[in-house]
Structures are given as structure tokens and as C-alpha cells.
Write a structure and sequence with these properties.
By secondary structure, the chain is an alpha/beta fold. It has one domain: Rossmann fold.
């Protein structure tokens, strides 16, 4: 595992973007799983700037989202799909054929999960999974106790996760009680993983990961032993 400690938002975003750019330099046709939330926003800005400067090609890659709210249409501004379009995909002018995002309002959500898996498999699996980290150790929407073998599936969201996500919205949006998410088994199969960690609330989860002991009560520890993980983390979270 490669660990990069950073000081401040600018350094955090720069280090993450440097890692992603290196992956794209090796293979412009990357198959990438994209996260949402405040953690990757700086990364997306850096990638857009790199493309504008001619230092990276974003348009040849294939993009998937890690997760989505069940029952929320992609066109809804609260959806993760809308977030990714707003902060990255539309600004990078990624062609629709290069993007496959989960449809949270699909009439058969289980079939939608299977179709999502099939689309990833058709691209040869994930080259790069970009992950944030929840305070309870969740990665994507895989909460404590989740199966480590699962592919994309529907999950109940904990009240802690729902409260954390509700904080992103200034309106009265009620975070759904369920999400659909790439499973831990799918994430562990990614050839490269970028784990981005910032925020004081993540300290205990990060400590569990750095201890290197797989523990189902901390889903992030499923990544322990993965052959290619890069951790980019705020140095304020560093212990010892």
C-alpha cells in the first residue's frame, strides 16, 4: 500500500489527481468507479484542469458510479448521478456512451443491479475504484457487517449514514432508507484502488484500516491486503 499524507485541501486534491492521472497515462481507456460527496470534489476540479491543459485524456475512459439512492431518479438534483454530472461528467464533456450510472428509480432494482454488474464486466472489470470513507468505516454504501463477496446490491442505510448525507443538502430532502451499491467483492476486484480520507470524523475508521486487520465491523478493512491501494489522507488524521 502506498500512503500519502497531505496538508490542506489543495495538497489533498493534488495528490489524488496525480494518482488518477498516472493511471490514465498507463491506460486512457480506464474503467473507473466514481464517488460522490465533498471528499472528491477537489479531485474532480483538478482532473478537469489537467484535461484543459492537455495533460490527461478523460474522454476515452468508461465511468460508473459506486452507489445511488433507491427511488431517486437520475434527473433529480439530489441523486448521485446528478452530482457526478454536475461536478465532473458534463464539464469534461464525457460522451453518454462512456457513462453507465445506476438508476435508483428502476422498476426492478435487483435487475438494475445485475445490469450494472454486466456493464462493468463487459469492460473487463474495474481498472480503478475511487473511494471515500464513512465515519463508520463504510465504503460506497457497504455498511458494517456487509458481505465481503457481494456485487451490486440493495442495502438499508444506517441512520448515521443518512444523517451524514442529509447534511449535503440545504433543502428538506429526506435521504432514502435504502441505497444500491457496488458490493465489497466488486470493489476488491478492482485492479487499483484510490482511498481518499479527510475529516476528523473518519479518524477511527482510518485507524482500523491502517491496523491492517480485516474486521467486518469496519468495511474498509476489506481492502487490507489488496495488491494496489493508494491512500491519500489528511495528515491531521495521522497517529503516532
Amino acid at each position: 500500500m502506498q500512503i500519502e499524507w497531505t496538508d490542506g485541501e489543495e495538497s489533498f486534491a493534488d495528490r489524488a489527481a496525480k494518482h488518477v492521472a498516472a493511471r490514465f497515462a498507463d491506460k486512457p481507456t480506464q474503467t473507473v468507479a466514481l464517488p460522490t460527496g465533498m471528499t472528491p470534489v477537489g479531485l474532480y476540479r483538478r482532473l478537469l484542469a489537467l484535461e484543459a491543459a492537455g495533460a490527461i485524456r478523460l474522454g476515452a475512459a468508461h465511468y460508473f458510479n459506486l452507489d445511488e439512492y433507491v427511488g431517486v431518479p437520475q434527473a433529480d438534483s439530489h441523486s448521485f448521478a446528478a452530482f457526478l454530472h454536475r461536478h465532473f461528467l458534463d464539464q469534461a464533456a464525457i460522451a453518454p456512451g462512456q457513462v453507465r450510472l445506476l438508476q435508483g428509480d428502476a422498476p426492478d432494482i435487483a435487475a438494475e443491479a445485475q445490469a450494472h454488474d454486466a456493464a462493468v464486466a463487459a469492460q473487463g472489470g474495474l481498472d480503478l475504484a475511487i473511494l471515500g470513507l464513512g465515519a463508520n468505516g463504510h465504503i460506497a454504501f457497504n455498511e458494517p457487517g456487509a458481505s465481503w463477496d457481494a456485487t451490486t446490491h440493495v442495502v438499508p442505510l444506517t441512520e448515521e449514514t443518512r444523517a451524514a448525507n442529509a447534511a449535503y443538502f440545504a433543502d428538506a430532502f429526506t435521504v432514502p432508507s435504502e441505497g444500491v451499491t457496488m458490493g465489497i467483492g466488486m470493489l476488491r476486484a478492482a485492479r487499483h484502488i484510490l482511498l481518499m480520507v479527510s475529516g476528523a470524523s473518519k479518524a477511527q475508521a482510518l485507524e482500523a484500516f491502517l491496523a491492517g486487520r480485516p474486521d467486518p465491523s469496519w468495511p474498509v478493512t476489506a481492502l487490507c491486503g489488496h495488491p494496489s491501494v493508494t491512500l491519500v489522507a489528511d495528515s491531521a488524521l495521522r497517529r503516532g
